[in-house]
Design a protein that fits this description.
Layout lengths: L1 E5 L3 H14 L4 E6 L2 H10 L4 E5 L7 H8 L6 E6 L6 H6 L3 E4 L4 H19 L8 H19 L1 E6 L2 E6 L3 E7 L2 E6 L4 E4 L3 H8 L4 E5 L2 E4 L3 E5 L5 E4 L4 E3 L5 H7 L4
Parallel strand pairs: 1-2, 1-3, 3-4, 4-5
Antiparallel strand pairs: 6-7, 8-9, 8-12, 9-10, 11-12, 13-14, 14-15
Helix pairs in contact: 1-5
């Protein structure tokens, strides 16, 4: 099995190398990298079977490395991190392993055993568990969801600036040169931006302008009622008209056939 180690701390790489060779003397360590830039170069030269990847590094994170590589990366990933709170939901959602620093040899041995089982399953026509590309796609989707959950929108109001988590915004409605924002807790506020400006500020794949007067967070859509343009029903019971010219794009975004 071939491996590449990515960690900005030399001591962490040395410890992992030592324990890897104790757990699996036949493992071939192709490269050790201290940055995302070095890792991209090493991966281009010789793709490994497994990438041991630190999450928090100066310049760019391990997650950003995977986002650059995309969902077709042909290897498995085992994350190493000193922070147990780091996107564990995303890692599990993508069927990826992770090791907390300092790496314990028994935990490493179990991770390697799971990795061998995955590889054996893939060799038997994917007899169980996701393939590396499938797992990568699931991970990237989970990461995007977590990132959107953490993002906030700076909303200028008559009193100052409010910072709203994107996940709390259900929809926004045009109100002349302003926009009214409706929140998950059923509160609403008036932003001193029009709907088009608000759409540009959000810049999120979750939000879609379904009508010249309506911007909707697609996560809160519960029903689509067919019609000339159609109507969206949201989790708060609101019904929002969809314009005819936005209908096909909306249905594609909602994956409605």
């Amino acid at each position: 099995m071939k491996a590449i180690l990515v960690d900005d701390e030399p001591s962490a790489r040395a410890l992992l190398r030592h324990k890897l060779r104790r757990c699996d003397p036949e493992i071939d360590i192709l490269a050790e990298c201290e940055s995302v830039e070095e890792a991209l170069s090493a991966l281009d030269r010789r793709p490994p079977d497994v990438l041991f990847l630190d999450i928090e590094m100066p310049g760019a994170t391990g997650f950003e490395l995977l986002q650059q590589l995309g969902a077709d990366a042909p290897f498995q990933v085992i994350f190493t991190t000193a922070h147990s709170e780091y996107a564990i939901e995303a890692l599990r959602g993508g069927a990826f392993d992770y090791l907390l620093k300092p790496v314990q040899e028994d935990e490493l041995a179990r991770a390697l055993d799971r990795l061998h089982q995955k590889r054996t399953g893939a060799a038997r026509a994917d007899a169980g568990g996701p393939s590396a590309p499938q797992g990568m796609a699931a991970l990237l989707k989970s990461l995007q969801s977590l990132q959107e959950k953490d993002k906030k929108l700076a909303v200028p109001t008559s009193e100052g600036v409010l910072f709203l988590p994107l996940a709390d915004i259900i929809r926004a409605e045009a109100a002349g040169s302003y926009a009214t924002i409706f929140l998950q807790n059923r509160q609403k506020l008036v932003a001193s931006k029009n709907l088009t400006e608000l759409e540009e500020m959000l810049g999120s794949s979750d939000f879609f302008k379904v009508h010249k007067s309506h911007l909707v967070n697609l996560r809160y859509v519960t029903k689509y009622i067919r019609g000339e343009g159609g109507i969206l029903v949201l989790t708060d019971g609101t019904e929002v008209d969809v314009s005819r010219r936005k209908k096909e794009e909306l249905l594609a975004r909602l994956s409605v056939r």
